[in-house]
Amino acid sequence: MRLPRWMRYFSPRRGRLVPGPELGARSGIKAGESQLEQVRGVAGYHQSQADIREEDLPDGEVAEAVEIDIEEIVPKLADPTVVAEIVAPERDVHAHVGEPLLSMNNVTVKFGGLTALDDVTFDIKRGEILGLIGPNGAGKTTAFNAMTGVYRPTSGDVVLDGRSVVGAKRNEITRRGIARTFQNIRLFSDMTALENVAVGTDARHKTSVPGALFRTKRHRAEERDAIDRGMALLEFVGIGARATHQARNLPYGDQRRLEIARALATEPKLLCLDEPAAGFNPAEKAELMGLIRKIRDDGYTVLLIEHDMRLVMGVCDRIVVLEFGRKIAEGTPAEVAADPAVVAAYLGVPDDATS
Ligand SMILES: Nc1ncnc2c1ncn2[C@@H]1O[C@H](COP(=O)(O)OP(=O)(O)OP(=O)(O)O)[C@@H](O)[C@H]1O
Q: Where is the ABC transporter domain (predicted)?
């Protein structure tokens, strides 16, 4: 995995900041100071409750999770409109609703003799929630991976905002505006929720390494921005009170929310969610639907891979259906649900229909 810029200089170990080999002892940065303590110090957030970590406690004592009162720390975040403004800084995205943001143009992906995606063409339009569905092995994740630079299409093109992303490096694709979450949660488990989101904001920052070392004005401004945006994002996804909790101590549902917050921190044009409801109970699924709609209404475009049909039908504006690597249907949830090819793909074609 390629580490974000700041992580190449710090090794997070059990939640502690240890100057990494590239930075060495010359930096003057105190080993043992947590990332959060650093950024909080810089941004001027003084929290009365300590961020308790297990290794700080005498043997046998158990760390208590500390809920923070977000209104006390960042009073302006008590206003949901302010939170929404910070979360979606480029609000002009609404001006282009309906135009294609990403186009898959005749994309084929082959693995040896296996064709995982076969000449697939569809658009993701700005401001919509597009569902990508299909039975197991249909090619959904392969399509995601072709968009995000994990796989290079064998043929065809993936165009984002008028420019091809084929051949671009993954971090370049992130910078150009595609962010994703994963089927299996991938968080920095020893880092706090806020630190995890701050990692995402790094993709947008421009400070050079010397700039970071000498703490230039721009670097300090970017750190403050990371905290403000990080806190706003945690509040936006509903876990603002858990900002100082280590990711691994968060309940499963909150870890999924944190993944979404981290992806949004890169200020994507397109947010790709890969089975975000896996392992959720019905109440959590209903809450997730609300969050996905909120993300769309805040100006983002969302691509959703999800097996739960109730969720997909309930939240998507349009749906693309794949089967054996081919697109077999595209349309509104109602159109797709009534399409005989889709019904056959999911339920199997009855014997008497083929005889
Ligand atoms: N890296 C790979 N190497 C070889 N075959 C692969 C690779 N990735 C995917 N495949 C194959 O490509 C086909 C499509 O897989 P893909 O994971 O895209 O399907 P999916 O629709 O996401 O399935 P699921 O719903 O089970 O996650 C499958 O037959 C799979 O085994």
A: 102-349
Give me ligand 1 centre to Cα 229, in Å: 35
What number is the ipTM of this complex?
0.96
Q: Which helix (H) or strand (E) holds 229?
A: helix 217-236
Q: Is the Cα torsion angle 55, 59, 60, 62 positive or negative in sign?
A: negative
* Ligand 1: nearest atom to the Cα of 143: 18
Those residues whose C-beta lies under 8 Å from the C-beta of residue 118, and which sit 6 or more positions away, are: 108, 139, 324, 325, 326
For the question of whether the overall pTM of this predicted structure is more than 0.90, the answer is no
Ligand 1 centroid–CA 127 distance in Å is 28
**Are residue 104 and residue 172 in the same domain, yes or no?**
yes
Let me know whether 140 and 4 are in one domain: no
Confirm whether 198 is domain-assigned.
no
Ligand 1 shell residues, CB under 6 Å: 111, 114, 116, 134, 136-142
Is 211 a member of any domain?
A: no
Quote the domain boundaries for residue 6. Answer: 1-73
Per-residue pLDDT of 127-145, as tens digits, reads 999 999 999 899 999 999 9
Looking at the structure of the chain, the number of domains it has is 2
